[in-house]
Amino acid sequence: MxxxxxxxxxxxxxxxxxxxxxxxxxxxxxxxxxxxxxSAYDIAATLTELDMLHxxxxxxxxxxxGLAAYRIGMGYMNGLDFLEIIEPELRAFSRKVGCTVFFxxxxxxxxxxxxxxxxENPIITxxxxxxxxxxxxxxxxxxxxxxxxxxxxxxVIGRIHFRPKTERTIVSREELEEELALTRERGFAMDARExxxxxxxxxxxxxxxxxxVLGAISLSSLYRPDEDYEVLGRxxxxxxxxxxxxxxxxxxxPAPFLY
Length: 259
Prior knowledge:
Layout: H1 5-19, E1 24-25, H2 26-33, H3 37-49, E2 53-56, E3 62-65, H4 67-78, H5 82-97, E4 100-107, E5 110-117, E6 132-134, H6 139-146, H7 150-158, H8 173-186, E7 189-192, E8 199-207, E9 213-222, H9 229-246
Antiparallel strand pairs: 1-3, 2-3, 4-5, 4-9, 5-6, 7-8, 8-9
């Protein structure tokens, strides 16, 4: 069968971008795939327009996997378009609790925000759909890491470069591993003003029918010293458990789930 050259090059560019979470430049694309610069640029520009690639502008343009590609990949992995199932659940949940609700997945050593739902009077948050943030200082990231298999978790932690976002940010592997153990013990993760001084978030893992962690959901709110974050934590854990069941997860599947 004769293969379409442009289609083949498009897939090769997407594969290359997927291998390099930090981004790939146009020059690297041309060099590694032996492509003419004009052809590579035209394909990359089209993929960016379709949100299959995300472009970061600096001294050089760098291309990373875009949100549309994540959605396609996640749908394939789970054998169904699970976003159609969870989006109405999270939208209603956000209105009910009066907080911003996120769903995110792991992208190498970062978490990427796939969905965001806000109540009628939203609190302004810097995270938007498609944003990537470190796993070690977000409730989404901690929730995902805590329930990822040990071998993968150790590999991911080994690639993390700890940098303080606030004075409360975890800045060492030892601190993170202690925090992940606590997350598994109580069933939810916390971002205790580690990403932004004025924001606190609680997050819990979402599992697919095969028992593996798909991602996590979180509640974000302004920090209040009188807020009972244990109650919010149990609330997000219960919602994550409900969504996991909707996706086919059952007690007794390989991955542990703490309620």
